[in-house]
Write a structure and sequence with these properties.
Layout (H helix, E strand, L loop, with lengths): L7 H14 L7 H14 L2 E6 L5 H7 L6 H8 L1 E4 L8 H14 L5 E5 L2 E2 L8 E2 L5 E4 L2 E4 L2 E2 H8 L5 E5 L1 H5 L12 E2 L1 H8 L6 E4 L6 H15 L14 H4 L3 H4 L3 H6 L31 H4 L48 H6 L9 H8 L13
Parallel strand pairs: 1-2, 1-3, 3-9, 9-11
Antiparallel strand pairs: 4-10, 5-8, 6-7
Helix pairs in contact: 1-2, 3-9
Bound molecules: iron/sulfur cluster.
């Protein structure tokens, strides 16, 4: 999986696409092209391993078909190990990891997809070429190396670690409801190891959006090479992609502000663009740019397809945001207070006074003072 040569013209095209991806102005393209060119000349090695994952984040990334950017990353970085797309198998594949450790210690990026099982010596999730078998909860399993051991070996020698997807970053679905496997998010597991560790950057999403992952890798590499900045939020996610609440930019925000909610799934014509809050939308507590970036090469996104946002980019997904189709409970979430507290919504990024006033009116049994009659049924 090593690179192929790209022309200067192609490179500028890549840089233009990358600048758009990272939300940079066109004026930044020459500077970005230079940085990327130097970066590609060094071919930063990437080792991409998988823990308790469904491979959804890999599939999401590989399904992307925007011109150039994914190609740039796959061709001009040196991806030494990726279970789904690498050509090598068996001994050859594992040797690629060993060689990277020997030749590029302190220089490679470790991507981890899926969290880390820690119970039963981590034997719930293994890969490698161990000999013989061992017992796991009464079953005979191959004596391969647990992902926990791989991370213990690889993380201290990486330049940076990218936890790709909600499961890797925060535990996601595998960590919900007292996982018997001892599911541990990647950053938490790495910090539990102690000692000097590289920075760990989280990418939310179930799955992660290809732009979020590619952009975060590029930002991390540019940062490590001293040519860019890494602007992270309090959850160690890039502010480029996770800097604003979905609710702030949602195309149905006007419906929310006007109290026009989808009351049940058979109620109305989807073209009415009713707010999905009462059907469980988690957009008011989820920081991500789905509504402006959209998915599947900008075709659509969850709310645009008449589904509520499930908050899959949030650190609270899945456990604290479920049931997914129930409205947000009167619970304190990070950055937002209880539902009856209108100012809480405003503090979380809402722009209008009386946000969702009709909804809150119904909850509180009081008529909101600053809204007109007739919005609520
Ligand atoms: Fe959009 Fe959901 Fe906010 Fe309604 S609650 S405006 S559907 S993000």
């Amino acid at each position: 999986m090593t690179g192929k040569t790209v022309s200067r013209r192609q490179f500028l095209k890549h840089a233009g696409a990358t600048a758009a991806l990272l939300g940079l102005s066109e004026a930044m393209i020459p500077q970005l092209a230079k940085a990327l060119e130097e970066l590609a000349a060094g071919k930063p090695p990437v080792i991409w391993i998988q823990g308790q994952n469904c491979t959804g984040c890999s599939v999401s990334f590989l399904n992307s078909n925007y011109p150039g950017v994914a190609e740039l990353v796959l061709n001009d970085l040196s991806v030494r190990y990726q279970p789904n797309v690498m050509g090598g198998t068996g001994q050859t594949a594992v040797e690629a990891i060993d060689q990277t450790l020997q030749n590029a210690a302190g220089k490679f990026v470790l991507v981890v997809e899926g969290p880390v099982p820690t119970k039963e010596n981590g034997d719930f999730c293994t890969f490698g070429l161990g000999s013989g078998t061992k017992k796991l909860m009464g079953n005979t399993v191959p004596n391969d190396k647990p992902i926990a051991e791989w991370i213990k070996q690889l993380a201290p020698k990486a330049a940076a670690v990218i936890a790709n997807g909600n499961c890797a970053s925060f535990g996601g679905i595998p960590a919900a409801n007292a996982s018997v496997t001892g599911t541990t998010p990647v950053p938490k597991y790495i910090s539990s190891l102690g000692g000097k560790m590289p920075p760990v950057v989280n990418v939310g999403g179930c799955p992660s959006h290809p732009d979020w992952f590619v952009g975060t890798v590029l930002e991390a590499l540019l940062f490590l090479s001293g040519k860019g900045k890494l602007n992270l939020n309090s959850n160690n996610m890039s502010k480029t992609f996770f800097g604003q609440l979905i609710h702030e930019n949602c195309e149905r925000r006007a419906s929310f502000d006007s109290g026009l909610f989808l009351e049940d799934w058979n109620q109305a014509d989807p073209d009415m663009k009713l707010c999905m809050f009462k059907q469980g939308c988690k957009g008011p507590v989820t920081y991500a740019d789905c509504c402006v970036r959209r998915w599947n090469s900008k075709v659509n996104w969850c709310v645009g397809a008449n589904g509520p946002c499930h908050g899959c980019a949030s650190p609270n997904f899945y456990k604290e945001l479920s049931p997914l189709y129930e409205p947000l409970a009167n619970t304190n979430f990070a950055g937002i207070s209880t539902a009856p507290d209108v100012l809480g919504w405003v503090a979380a990024g809402a722009t209008a006074v009386g946000v969702g006033a009709h909804y809150l009116y119904k909850q509180l049994g009081e008529k909101p003072k600053d809204t007109a009659e007739g919005g609520e049924k």
